[in-house]
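Dear Dr. H.,

I hope your travels went smoothly. While you were away I took the liberty of generating a structure for the chain from your last submission, since the lab meeting agenda had it listed for discussion. I wanted you to have the full record in hand beforehand rather than looking at slides cold. The sequence, exactly as received, is reproduced here:
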Amino acid sequence: MAASTARIPFLLELQNDLLGGLTTTVVVPLYDAGAITGPAIRDLTPVLEFDHRSVVMMTPELAGLDRKRLARPIGDLRHRRSEIIAALDILFTGI
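The corresponding predicted structure, in token form, is as follows:
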């Protein structure tokens, strides 16, 4: 595992599947919880459990990405949908 993948092991694709025909998608990095230093804004950067590890959704680092750069999906976080949407609401609306 490279240093960057140890710190940021996953990307969470946020874009709806209905837009799968687009060449780009919207992602947010999921940092290893141990790699985070300093204070966190809890609702903006929620801690999620994925692949038997704690990861932090770094919502402020949301980005567009060419779909070709993504590997195949290895799981989903749909069961955490409300927390994910709440973090996006804080990013975009402040509430």
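Two observations you may find useful: The domain at 3-93 is CATH 2.30.30.110 (SH3 type barrels.). The CA atoms of residues 45 and 57 lie 5 Å apart.

With kind regards,
E. W.
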